[in-house]
Amino acid sequence: MNSVRLKFGKYLRTFLDLFLHDLEVLTSDLSHRSPGKPSSGAPGKPSSGAPDKPSSGAPGSGIFLKAFMGLFLRDLRVLTREFLPFLLRVGMQPLLFLFVFTFILPRMATGNPMAMGGGAPGSGMDFGTILLPGLMAVAIMFSGIAAVALPLSSEFGITREIDDRVMCPLPLWAVALEKVCFSAMQSIVAALLVIPMAYYIPAKPVVAHVASWLLLALVLLLASLLAGSLGLVIGSTVNPRQIGLVFSIIVVPITFLGCVYYPWTGLLKNIKWLAFAVLFNPIVYMSEGLRAAVTPSVPHMPWWAILLALVFFTAALGRWGLKGFLGKVLS
Amino acid sequence: MNLLIVEIENLTKVYESKQRVVAVDGIDLELKQGEIFGLLGPNGAGKTTTISIATTRTLPTSGTVRIADIDVVKHPAYARRHIGVVPQFNTLDRSLTVYENLYFHCRYFGFNHGHAKARSLELLKQFTLSERKDATPAQLSGGLAQRVQIARAIAHRPTVLFLDEPSAGLDPQSRMAMWSAVEELHKEGITVLLTTHYMEEADSLCDRLAIMDYGRVLALGSPEKLKAVLGARTIFNLKLKSQEGLEPLVATLKARPGVTSAEIMADGLRVIASSSDGLLSELVQAAAGHGLRDLNITEPSLETVFIQLTGRDLRE
Question: Domain locations in chain B?
Answer without folding.
Answer: 4-92+140-228, 233-299
